[in-house]
């Protein structure tokens, strides 16, 4: 970027107009607009009037500067993959009737997940495994009740 503007030295300061907000420069050699802070050498660029009105000239865009905090959180949560599997299997087992297939798998995976949580406490996931293990029993109860209903309803409909 050119700092020394030799071509415009003889110009009247009032003739140097800010491309973003339209204010005239205070000094002949001014580099930045006094009102909004835009570099006076630049032409109008997209979003300039918006950036000027929010006093964002000369600052980086937020998207460029911020590092996504979500990516780090994802790693923190996903370190015990066995517990994640147990939880996923537990959610699948909540599907009426056919979900009962997942119950044994949930029990095995949650026990393995608790083992991982005990052996590597920094991995976490112990609570998740425990929740999957406990929920599996409630799910089993509800599933058995649903299957029982499926067989008892035709019995009830049969004329005596
Ligand atoms: Zn300006």
Averaged pLDDT = 82
Bound molecules: zinc ion
Q: What structural class do you assign from the helix and strand content?
A: mainly alpha
Query: What is the total tally of β strands?
Result: 0
The N- to C-terminal Cα distance equals 96 Å
Q: How large, in whole angstroms, is the Cα Rg?
A: 34 Å
What fraction of the residues are assigned to beta strands by DSSP? Answer: under 5%
Biggest sheet architecture: none
Number of helix segments? 6
How are helices and strands ordered from N to C? HHHHHH
Sum up the overall morphology in one term. Answer: elongated
**pLDDT < 50 stretches:** none
Helix percentage range: 40-55%
Please give the domain count: 2
List the helices and strands and how they pair.
Elements: H1 48-53, H2 62-65, H3 69-77, H4 81-92, H5 102-119, H6 126-157
Helix pairs in contact: 4-5, 4-6, 5-6
Zinc ion is lined by residues 18, 20-21, 23, 33, 35-36, 38, 52.
Summary?
The protein is 51% helix and 0% strand. With 160 residues, the chain is mostly helical.
Descriptive notes:
It contains six helices and no strands. The chain is an all-alpha fold and 160 residues long. It has two domains: 7-58, no CATH class; 72-157, no CATH class. Helix 4 (81-92) runs antiparallel to helix 5 (102-119), helix 4 runs parallel beside helix 6 and helix 5 (102-119) packs antiparallel against helix 6 (126-157). Zinc ion binds next to loops.
